[in-house]
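Re: the 108-residue chain
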Amino acid sequence: MNLVAKEFVAARDDEQGMLILSRFAGASRELRDAVLINPYDIEQTAEAIRQSLEMGPAEKSARMQRMRAVLKDKNVYSWAADLISSLCEVRPEQRESTPEATVPESAA
């Protein structure tokens, strides 16, 4: 579902149309200019459809421009860079080892 929502935004180079997106979808964290809904709330979903149909072209265009800008910034390359950075942060620390064996004095 996340890619479908992003593909819709990427494909709308006319900057029209409106994305109605479940607030439970991961893409809702990035595509905040979509009309976000709880898909289990029928009345809210109906209201979102009405709002989207009645929305003026200027507002649709502004929202679409902002969502398209997010997609340009949050592309696969930035995702990969973020993933690698996160992985680098969780690698175990390299311990310095001394050439001598460390034996407690009480054992010697």
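The chain has a mean pLDDT of 87.
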